[in-house]
Amino acid sequence: MSDVQMGTVESKFADMIWSNEPVSSARLAELAFSELNWKKTTSYTVLKRLCDKGIFKNEKGSVTSVISREDFYSMQSEKFVDETFEGSLPAFLAAFTKRKSLKPEEVAELRRMVDEYEVK
Fold first, then answer.
1. CA quadruple 113, 19, 61, 53: dihedral positive or negative?
2. Residue 103: strand, helix, or coil
3. What is the pLDDT of residues 40-86, one digit of tens each?
4. 75-109, pLDDT tens digit by residue?
5. CA distance linking residue 51 with residue 43, whole number of Å
6. Bridge partners of residue 88, in order along the sequence
7. In whole angstroms, what is the distance from residue 18 CA to residue 91 CA?
């Protein structure tokens, strides 16, 4: 499942689903028209594509997630670090912070996360 990817437009649509689920496919088409200016057919085409990828399911007109937003983006992040930094989170953080400074609250959050991990 970690090889599942979404483009930018699919991600916006997926976020609409995750934010509103369970949501009827008709309501989803209305939201997509309102937020993305999509025709109903475009919404249904993208929804089918996301369902075929195994991210969502559309049963009897009710759309729900198979993979949560958090799990999906966690898998994508893990895949990126694995493929780009040979699985090294420190190498990723070093590259990330080379051009972008972390805010003090971000540093504190990272410390809290490491401390929690060490306790486990």
1. negative
2. coil
3. 999 999 999 999 999 999 999 999 999 999 999 999 999 999 999 99
4. 999 999 999 999 999 999 999 999 999 999 999 99
5. 12
6. none
7. 31
CA-based end-to-end distance of the chain: 26
Count Cβ atoms below 10 Å from residue 98 Cβ, excluding itself: 8
Q: Which of 94, 81, 4 is nearest to 50 (CA)?
A: 4
58: left (phi over 0), alpha (psi -120 to 50) or beta: beta
Q: What is the 3-state secondary structure (H, E, C) of 26-92?
A: HHHHHHHHHHHCCCHHHHHHHHHHHHHCCCEEEECCEEEECCCHHHHHHHHHHHHHHHHHCCCHHHH
Q: Return the SS3 of 5.
A: coil
Q: Map tokens 């930018």 to a residue.
A: 8
Q: What is the pTM of this model?
A: 0.77
Q: How far apart are CA 57 and CA 66, in angstroms?
A: 6
